[in-house]
């Protein structure tokens, strides 16, 4: 009878744990979806909310607004981390979910620059800052919540499910964007259809709030609260005590800064690179990244599980080192796959397509076909605007998927174990605050600035006439990952002792 009771008890614990993981993951996935729609649509947003006379400046402005959401994430970590350590994990990330969903919905309603002028980008910036604050409180709460339910020795595996949500959020945002574009058509999507993914988020948030309202508080936090041991000043305990502050700085410089740049290089900068430098068609580039993400996402769970067996440090540092050593060769290959000067054109197949729309300038498109299946579309409008768009052939398409999948694999190595690693560095009473700050500085500031700084470095190198200007954007993530690797190698413990 006791064996049956023990089995039932184990089954009940597993059911509760997976319920906790599901509820936390759904909400966190939706928050990432909301946060990343902006980045996935940055090229279109730059034309909607900024002057069109300088496309590069408009794109950089859009990326700067995108980056602003990352920069304020550490402040959100402080505000909501403190709230989470005093009031509780559950109610804190309910608040962040409402803030995130409301901001995303409102971005979809703001009129463009041509209607409201500078008021439009300023409102978008304000809402983007609110998004950043909300995400600064969400992730730490979700990771802490799951970790405090997970049995000791399996935290890497169980928290890795939360780690999948950032990539899945990006995947879902790309899927919704591509589907909407196909339904409404390219021209309508660029005119008004891009708002649909923003507006649709309010439905997802409603579902997530319903699920999270049914969750119970973390058992470890509930125990602390019942014993009257909840921290009265988590900020002072986290950053005012030398020993804990040392662990916060070590977590930032030896782990999360390098992890952050690897994450954003492998996913966001990769997408930006093939769209802007490679000129790959918007839909095809989104599909390529989405497929790479789909193939790579399972490795978050694998490396989280593996970190329970061999430790977090070696896996995370290996991912950083691989990025440092291989980013330049990978991006050189991505560039060459879209460089038509290296391909052989079938000139006999060249065609000119003309599109006439009443009341609008005619559009002339010259289509170049190449022996490897690549197509290059050179579009010229009656107003003098020109645009080049590339469509990969089968071989180029799947090679590009593979090269981005390799980078996603690095992402899973650095990101899969990081939640368990951070949770185990800090005691329960100040865990939400202590782990959230280094995570969001590493990801929000070091990582979140990657697309903006990389594009700016490429632009500067191009103006200077550099022969391989397209690789210049990689110096930033390579440098940060290298520094983080060295600090982590020297100072990080292979398997920190969990603190309760």
UniProtKB/TrEMBL annotation:
The chain crosses the membrane at residues 16-38, 58-79, 91-110, 122-146, 158-180, 192-213, 248-268, 288-307, 314-331, 397-425, 437-458, 470-492. The keyword tRNA-binding does not apply. Signal peptide: none annotated. The keyword Transmembrane applies. PROSITE patterns: MFS, SUGAR_TRANSPORT_2. It is found in: Cell membrane. InterPro entries: MFS_dom, MFS_sugar_transport-like, MFS_trans_sf, Sugar_transporter_CS. It holds the Pfam family Sugar_tr. This is Sugar transporter. It comes from Siphonobacter aquaeclarae.
């Amino acid at each position: 009878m006791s064996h049956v009771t023990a089995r039932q008890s184990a089954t009940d614990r597993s059911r509760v744990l997976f319920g906790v993981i599901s509820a936390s993951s759904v909400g966190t996935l939706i928050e990432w979806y909301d946060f990343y729609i902006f980045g996935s649509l940055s090229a279109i947003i730059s034309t909607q909310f900024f002057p069109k006379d300088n496309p590069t400046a408009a794109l950089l402005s859009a990326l700067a607004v995108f980056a602003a959401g990352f920069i304020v994430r550490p402040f959100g970590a402080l505000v909501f981390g403190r709230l989470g350590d005093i009031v509780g994990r559950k109610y804190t990330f309910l608040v962040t979910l409402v803030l995130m969903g409301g901001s995303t919905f409102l971005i979809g309603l703001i009129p463009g620059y041509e209607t409201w002028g500078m008021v439009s980008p300023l409102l978008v910036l304000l809402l983007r800052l609110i998004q950043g604050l909300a995400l600064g409180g969400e992730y730490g709460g979700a990771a802490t919540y799951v970790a405090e339910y997970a049995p000791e020795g399996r935290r890497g595996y169980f928290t890795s499910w939360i780690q999948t949500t950032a990539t899945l959020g990006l995947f879902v945002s790309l899927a919704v964007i591509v589907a909407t574009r196909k339904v409404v058509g390219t021209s309508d999507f660029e005119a008004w259809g891009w708002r649909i993914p923003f507006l649709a988020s309010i439905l997802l948030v409603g579902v997530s709030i319903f699920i999270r309202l049914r969750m119970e508080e973390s058992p470890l936090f509930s125990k602390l609260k019942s014993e009257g041991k909840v921290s009265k000043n988590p900020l002072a305990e986290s950053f005012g005590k030398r020993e804990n502050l040392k662990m916060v700085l070590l977590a930032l410089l030896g782990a999360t800064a390098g992890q952050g740049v690897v994450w954003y290089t492998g996913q966001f900068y990769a997408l930006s690179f093939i769209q802007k430098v490679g000129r790959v068609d918007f839909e095809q580039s989104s599909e390529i990244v989405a497929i790479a993400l789909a193939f790579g996402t399972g490795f978050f769970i694998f490396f989280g599980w593996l970190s329970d067996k061999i430790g977090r440090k070696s896996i995370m540092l290996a991912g950083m080192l691989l990025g440092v050593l291989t980013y330049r060769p990978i991006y050189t290959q991505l560039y060459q796959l879209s460089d038509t000067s290296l391909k052989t054109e079938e000139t006999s197949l060249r065609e000119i397509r003309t599109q006439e729309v009443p009341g609008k300038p005619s559009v002339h498109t010259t289509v170049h076909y190449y022996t490897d299946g690549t197509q290059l579309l050179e579009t010229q409008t009656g107003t003098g605007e020109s645009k080049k768009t590339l469509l990969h052939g089968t071989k180029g398409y799947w090679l590009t998927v593979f090269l981005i999948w390799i980078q996603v694999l690095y992402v899973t190595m650095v990101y899969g174990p990081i939640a368990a690693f951070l949770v185990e560095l800090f005691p329960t009473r100040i865990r939400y605050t202590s782990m959230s700050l280094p995570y969001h500085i590493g990801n929000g500031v070091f990582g979140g600035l990657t697309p903006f700084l990389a594009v700016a470095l490429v632009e500067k190198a191009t103006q200077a006439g550099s022969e391989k200007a397209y690789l210049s954007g990689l110096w930033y993530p390579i440098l940060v990952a290298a520094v983080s690797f060295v600090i982590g190698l020297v100072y990080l413990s292979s398997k920190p002792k969990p603190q309760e």
